Amino acid sequence: MWLAAAAPSLARRLLFLGPPPPPLLLLLLSRSSRRRRRLHSLGLAAMPEKRPFERLPADVCPINYSLCLKPDLLDFTFEGKLEASAQVRQATNQIVMNCADIDIITASYVPEGDEVPRPGIEPRLLSVKARSPNHWTARESPTDCVFRCFDNRKQFSDNFEIHATGFNYQNEDEKVTLSFPSTLQPGTGTLKIDFVGELNDKMKGFYRSKYTTPSGEVRYAAVTQFEATDARRAFPCWDEPAIKATFDISLVVPKDRVALSNMNVIDRKPYPDDENVVEVKFARTPVMSTYLVAFVVGEYDFVETRSKDGVCVRVYTPVGKAEQGKFALEVAAKTLPFYKDYFNVPYPLPKIDLIAIADFAAGAMENWGLVTYRETALLIDPKNSCSSSRQWVALVVGHELAHQWFGNLVTMEWWTHLWLNEGFASWIEYLCVDHCFPEYDIWTQFVSADYTRAQELDALDNSHPIEVSVGHPSEVDEIFDAISYSKGASVIRMLHDYIGDKDFKKGMNMYLTKFQQKNAATEDLWESLENASGKPIAAVMNTWTKQMGFPLIYVEAEQIEDDRLLRLSQRKFCASGPYVGEDCPQWMVPITISTSEDSSHAKMKILMDKPEMNVVLKDVRPDQWVKLNLGTVGFYRTQYSSAMLESLLPGIRDLSLPPVDRLGLQNDLFSLARAGIISTVEVLKVMEAFVNEPNYTVWSDLSCNLGILSTLLSHTDFYEEIQEFVKDVFSPIGERLGWDPKPGEGHLDALLRGLVLGKLGKAGHKATLEEARRRFKDHVEGKQILSADLRSPVYLTVLKHGDGTTLDIMLKLHKQADMQEEKNRIERVLGATLSPELIQKVLTFALSEEVRPQDTVSVIGGVAGGSKHGRKAAWKFIKDNWEELYNRYQGGFLISRLIKLSVEGFAVDKMAGEVKAFFESHPAPSAERTIQQCCENILLNAAWLKRDAESIHQYLLQRKASPPTA
Ligand code: BES
Ligand code: ZN
C-alpha cells in the first residue's frame, strides 16, 4: 500500500514538441479582436486563485546525496536507499523534505562524529533474492527492506542513530515531515532513508518507457524526468533549485542493461547473491539542483566521439539504430566548443550523453551530463528524415547543451526566474545553429517561430509578465509557455542587439563566472551586462520582464526640406485593439530606423523612453521610404500612417525590403487587422503583393496567417472562396518550384517546396492534387518511394481529398513505419480527413496503443484543426474522454497543449462560455491560464468574424469576377 495519496495534478507547458507543425496545425493558432469589457463580463479575465504554498524550511539542508536505486523492470517498482550528509543549521526535532508517491520504510539521523566503524560485522541490511535476471521480489514487510547497497557503509552505534518516529506526509504539498524523538543539534550528520516507489507510466519522476526490441518483444526501460518538481517522486529530497548538493549515484540493474547517470561510471561490480545483477557506481557530481539529476536503465546502442575540447560525447539510440545518432553527435561535438568559446567557460563534466527515450513528455531535458530527448528530437535517418527534422534536432541539441552552462552551472534561484533559463537557451540555440548551419538562415526563422508567436500570446489580457511569482507545482508547470520561451528569447535578442555581441559576451562570462555552482536571479544577469556594457540594462529590461504585453508604436512622417521628421508614440498593443485607459504601461524601446537608401543598415538607433518622441532623419529624399524595426528585432508592433505604409508596399513586390522586414511588416498588418485597427481586406491586398516572394520563412509566416484566416472563415459559407484565394497566392511559387529538387538547391528550397505543395494540395489545387495522388500510389506500391521532404504534403493532400481506403492505407503505413518520425508525420495529418465516420476513427486511433502517449495530443489537435466537423468532434471527444486523458498525463503540460489545440479555433461567443463551464466542473489546475487564453481567443475570433466577414466575402467575390493581374 502506498502511504502517499494520489499525486495532486501537475502540469507543464512547452513550446515545441517536434519540428514546426505542418500547416494543418498552424491553422489552430487563431485569434481575433474583441473588447476587453466583453471578456470581463464573462468573468474570463480573473486570474487563477493562488494555491497556498511555502518553500522548504532552511534549518536542515543537504551537502551530499548518496543515492542507490534498484528498479524492477518487470514489476515496475523500485527500491531506494539514501544517505544524505546534511547540515543542521538550527536545532530541530524534525526534517521537512519533498516527497511524493514514495513509501518511506525507515529513516534515521546520525550526527557526525558518532559514527563507529565496526569492521567485520555483517551489514545490517538484508539483500533481497532475485527471481530471474531482471526481476526481484518486492520486500516482504517494511522491516526487512530493502536490498544491499552501500556495502562499504559505515556502521553506526545504535545509541547515536536517531530513528525517526513519524513520517507525516503532506500529500497536497508533496512534502514529508520526519519527526525525531530527540533534538538534532546544529552541525553535520547523515540522514538515512530506505524507501520504495513505483516506476509509473506518467512520464514524470522515475518512470517506465515502453520499447520494442528488434525481434518484436515489448520491454520497458526505467528513465527519469525531474524538471520541474518531480525528483521528489524518485527519492525524498530538498527539491528546490536553490538547494544544491553533490550526488553519488549507484544503480543496481540487470547486467545486460545499460545504466547511465549524470556522471561517468567509476565502478561496476557483481551484486552479492545474484550473478545476473550488477551495481554500477557513478562519479560524484558537481554541486547541482535536484531537477537536473537523471538515470536511465535500458537497452541502447550508441555512437561516440570526442569534442575538440576533450569531452567524451555519446548519442544513445534504440538497439540497431546507432547510425541515426550520427547527425546529433556531430552537432553536439561542434556545439560544445562553440559554447565554451562563447561563454569562455569550459564544460565542467568529463562526458555528455544524449539519449533518445521512447515515451517522453517534453521535447528534451537538459539533465547535467545526461540529456534526454524524444526520439524525434534526436534521431536522424539519412534517407528517411526530412529537412525540418534535421533542423529541429540541431535546435534542440543546441538548446539543451546551452543549459549545461546556463541553467546547470548557474541555476535560477527560484522558478520565477525560469524564463532566464528557457528564454536564454531558446535564443542561443539559434546562435549555435547559425554557427553550425549558416545555410538554414535560422534567424529569419526565429522571427516566424518565436517572435510572432510570443506577440500573439502576449497581446492577450490573459498573458502574464515574463517574471511571475510562482509557488505551488501546478503554477510552476504553467509557466513553461510561449512567454517564458519565445518572449524570453525575443527580449534577449533585442537586448543582444542593443548591447552588441562583444559586450554581451563579456557580460555573459562575468555572470557565469560569478555565479557558477550557485544560483542567480534576473537582476544578477542585468548587473553583469550593465557592468560589461555601461548601458542602463536593468532600467530598460525591467519594462520588458516585469510587466506583461508590449507596445504598438504609431509613426507618422513629415518631409521638412531635406530631412524627414518622424513622430512616434507608444501604447500597449492588445489583441482587441490599442489599450484604452489612462494608466497605459510604458516601455523603454530600442528602436532602429532604416531607409530605402540602405535597407539593411540602421540609419538611426534610439531608445524610446517616453510615450511620445520626435526624431529627425537628416538627408532623406521625399521619394525614399522609411521603416522602423530593422530585422524585426524590437519586441513591438508598428503602425504606420497611410502615407508611410503606401511607400513601403512596393518594397515587398520588388523585394527591396529585406526578407525579415517583409515578414515583419506582413505580420504586423495581419495582427492589426485581427485587432480591428485596420481592415482584413487591406491585408489580403498586401498578401497579393508577395507574388515574387522567394524566401521560405516569409512564405511560412504568410501561410500561417492565411491558415488562421481559413480556420476563421470555416465558420462561414464562403470557405471555398478563401481556398481560391490561397490557391491564387501560392500557385505562382508552386509552379516555379515544381515537385523535384533542382541541381544546386538546398535546405530552404526543400522546406519551401514542402510548404507550398502542402498548402496547394490542402486547398484542392487540381494539378497538385493529381500529382500527389500519383506519387502516393507509386510510394505505396513501392515503385517510387517518396522523398522524406515530400511525404507530409503528399500525405496531407491525399487524406484531405481521399476516402476510407486512403485512411486505411495511411494507418497501414503507420503500423509498418519503423521510425518514430514517420509515425508522427502520419499522426499529424490524419485529422485532415473529412468524413464524420473517418474523423471518429482517427479520434479512436489517437487513444489506441498504436500512438505513443505523448503523441495522442497531436492526433486530436490535428482533427480539431483539420475541418469544421473535426473541430466539433475533437471537442466532444475530449469531453467524453476527459477522465482518461487527464489521468494519462496526470494533468501534465500536455493537457494544456491538448486544450489549446482543440478549442482555440472556435469563433462563436457561446463556445467560450461552454469551454469555461466545462473546465469549472472538470478542473485542470495547471491549465487554468491556458483555458482563459483560449476563451479570450474564442471571443476575439467571434468579434473578428462579425466585424470583417462581410467585407472579406465581398472582396473575394469581386476578385473572382475580375482577377487581379500579377
Ligand atoms: N527544460 C526543458 C524541458 C522541460 C520542459 C522540462 C517543460 C519540464 C517542463 C528543456 O530545456 C526544453 O526547453 N525543452 C524544449 C525543447 C526546446 C528546444 C524548446 C521542449 O521540451 O519542448
Ligand atoms: Zn530549455
Automatic annotation (TrEMBL):
GO terms for cellular component: cytosol; extracellular space; membrane. This is Aminopeptidase. It catalyses: Release of an N-terminal amino acid, preferentially alanine, from a wide range of peptides, amides and arylamides. Residues 625-938 form the ERAP1-like C-terminal domain. It is a single-pass type II membrane protein. The record marks Y485 as: Transition state stabilizer. PANTHER family: PROTEASE M1 ZINC METALLOPROTEASE, PUROMYCIN-SENSITIVE AMINOPEPTIDASE-RELATED. Residues 327-544 form the Peptidase M1 membrane alanine aminopeptidase domain. Zn(2+) binds at H399, H403, E422. Keywords: Aminopeptidase, Cytoplasm, Hydrolase, Metal-binding, Metalloprotease, Protease, Signal-anchor, Transmembrane, Zinc. Its EC number is 3.4.11.-. The active site is at E400. GO terms for biological process: cellular response to hypoxia; peptide catabolic process; proteolysis. GO terms for molecular function: alanyl aminopeptidase activity; metalloaminopeptidase activity; peptide binding; zinc ion binding. Belongs to the peptidase M1 family. Its cofactor is Zn(2+). It is an enzyme of class 3 (hydrolase). Residues 62-108, 161-292 form the Aminopeptidase N-like N-terminal domain. It comes from Monodon monoceros (Narwhal). It is found in: Cytoplasm; Membrane. Binds 1 zinc ion per subunit.
